[in-house]
Amino acid sequence: MTDDLVFYTSPMSRGRIVRWMLEEVGRPYRTELVGFGPAMKAEAYRAINPMGKVPALTHGATVVTECAAILAYLADACPEAGLAPEPAARGAYYRWLFFCAGPVEAAVTNKVLGVTVPDDPRMRGMVGYGSLEAVLDTLEGAVSDRKFVAGERFSAADLYLASHLGWGMQFGTLPRRPAFEAYADRHAARPAAVRAREIDDGLLAQQAAS
């Protein structure tokens, strides 16, 4: 991977998750800031991400969008960073990476929007996550009494879960359970996570001053 890695983001967005991953990877990359509103919906940016959302990543001719996909791509493209288990041992890695991208995201978003799933087994069966309570309890079980969710070392799955937990507890969309706090705080103290926050917080300060 060379310096043709380009990261499209806004400093107060899910792009903060990808920034952390890029800092963990440790390879050169260029940041392209995309403002919310007209810039993000403009034809030039929608040629990269038709959804008109950040983050997005380009690596040469390859375009990747969606946080979980970007993290998985970078882990595979930069195996020397050790952010994914060996292919034969990726069951838990994929399980929790996409559990967070699917059921956790959906359940939390519905909670914020006030969408309630009827208390009817047939209706719950139509919803991928079942219930918010089931998602939270499953997530708590995944991060309790262990350092990492996929093996014996930190991976992109830990980064994604810790990011969601930290963000959710900060803004009140997830409860502050002790297991959540311990897991998120431990990983947020990693040097790459600290660097990533400093970069994005600096960009936010520049935007506020301009």
Describe the structure.
By secondary structure, the chain is of the alpha+beta class. It contains ten helices and four strands; from the N terminus they run βαβααββααααααα. The chain has helices at 15-25, 38-41, 43-46, 67-77, 91-113, 121-126, 132-143, 156-171, 178-188, 191-209; strands at residues 5-9, 30-33, 56-59, 62-65. Strands 2-1-3-4 form a four-stranded mixed β-sheet, with helices on one face. β1 (5-9), α1 (15-25) and β2 (30-33) form a beta-alpha-beta unit. α1 (15-25) runs parallel beside α4. The longest helix has 23 residues, at 91-113. It is globular.
**Which structural class fits the helix and strand makeup?**
alpha+beta
Relative helix content: 55-70%
Mean pLDDT figure: 94
**Discrete helix count:** 10
Strand element count: 4
Order of helices and strands: EHEHHEEHHHHHHH
Main-sheet strand order equals 2-1-3-4
- The N- to C-terminal Cα distance equals 34 Å
Beta-strand content: 5-15%
Most strands sheet: 4 strands, mixed
What does the overall shape look like? Answer: globular
Topology:
Layout: E1 5-9, H1 15-25, E2 30-33, H2 38-41, H3 43-46, E3 56-59, E4 62-65, H4 67-77, H5 91-113, H6 121-126, H7 132-143, H8 156-171, H9 178-188, H10 191-209
Parallel strand pairs: 1-2
Antiparallel strand pairs: 1-3, 3-4
